[in-house]
Amino acid sequence: MIGSIAWKNVWRNKKRSLVVIVAVTLGIIAGVLLIGIMEGWTKQRLHNAVNNEVSHIQIHNNEYIKNEEINLTVRNTDEIIRGLDSLREISGWVKRTKIIAMANTAWANTGVIIYGVDAEKEKRVTEIYKEIVPEGGRYLDNQSPGDILISDKTAELLKLKQYIVSDSTMEELRKEKVPGTVLIKLEALKDKRFRSPKDFREALQQEFNRKELDRYGLLITEKALDYRIRSKVQITISDKEGTPIQGIFRVCGIYKTTNSGFDQTTVFVKDKELANLYGGDEILTHEISILLNDIDDAGIVREKLSRISGDNSVMTWKELAPDAAMMNDFMILYYFIFIGIIMLALAFGIINTMLMAILERTKELGMLMAIGMNHKRIFKMIMLETIFLTVVGAVAGILSGWAITEALGKTGIHFSSWGEGFEAIGFAARVYPVVTPGFFVFTTIMVIATAIISSIWPARKALKLNPVEALRTE
């Protein structure tokens, strides 16, 4: 009966109740979206860190971690490989040669870390082969000699990434429904070669106004992009004696991940060809990278491998990618911070609304006390009113937030203005929000707790009323 009365009391002043419900709804929607974006970024960063950069576990020579010299290779590799093949938790593993080098073209040079890999085995551990950009060539092929796979960022540094407005570019822009007035202005740049994004951007700024650039600048840049596939890249490394050695490779493909810092320094060649370059009798193994079936098994597998690794260092993804590990481990803390702030703000609005309701119903509450309703029932009624008011808004907010997040999870949110900055620290410019069932359970508990806490002050205010004085209130 008390519950029925409390529900009816919520709707006695519909406008005031709806204001609170809408406030709670909007607050929950904001919280769901914010957490969805954080959760999406965290999952994307973790996926990219594991599947493109560090895998789940890596094995190195202990000294190699401190000083990446060419002669500091993994020890006891045969015994380690036998151990790897016997573990059911492992999905795949690959040996790599890893050498610091200088890359040169006819136009520029940059420092890189060159990985010598078995192209087919590498596919079992990393997803770099899936990150080849459109019109960016192909992945390494064990059958093609002299190939090197570089990133979009490295191509830019080596001036192998250029922008040309050609006839085909103009045709593609027409298909994209770019207005003729824009295409006419673009004719001034036709067949000119720009070797950096900055130069091309400055040229566009001279021809177009701000509105045209905001609307069509990104599309024009994308269509004008051209990679100099099959260009020669000279790689310079040092052998075990420190003598510089040079070799020529041709670019077979361009890849691009969400971490421009990783991309800038990482290039891939075939391990046998890198061995031929440094003149070794065998392929050097500086790193063994291991992918697991389940990320939660990383600690267990590390303990097993540590027993057979000898003087080598066995490190999990948490040590190799501490930024991704920190975000993943602290996700529950983000829940408390963001939802806590929203709930705190909503609590003041709820308390204010309930205090106003009690002030308006002073005479009514006095009458209820006078005819025998005890303090316990009064307290329960006020608490239920607060809970009903909050939960209605919370349910609407959770359902709306879930629907919006599901839609955005398919299309993604592109932070184009800050994309370069995000990618510099390893985060994707396009994020796909994700909300887990656990978050909805957490939010429901927080909403109910907020409603109960918010009801205490108004309920105590009601209990302090003197029935006689309350009945005299007009």
Structure in words:
- This protein has 474 residues and is an alpha+beta fold.
- The chain is built from 21 helices and 15 strands.
- The protein has three domains: 190 residues, no CATH class; 198 residues, no CATH class; 67 residues, no CATH class.
- A six-stranded mixed β-barrel has the order 2-3-11-5-10-9. The protein has a three-stranded antiparallel sheet with strand order 7-6-8.
- Helix 2 packs antiparallel against helix 16 and helix 16 runs parallel beside helix 20.
- The longest helix is centred in the N-terminal third of the chain and has 41 residues.
- The relative contact order is 0.19.
Low-confidence stretches: none
User: Per DSSP, what share of the residues sits in E-state strands of 2 or more residues?
Assistant: 15-25%
Relative helix content? 55-70%
**Quantity of strands, as a count:** 15
Global structural class: alpha+beta
Helix tally equals 21
Going across the major beta sheet, what is the strand order? 2-3-11-5-10-9
Distance between the termini: 27 Å
- Average pLDDT, to the nearest integer? 85
- Radius of gyration (Å): 32 Å
* Tally of separate domains: 3
- What would you call the shape? flat
The description of the largest β-sheet is: 6 strands, mixed, barrel
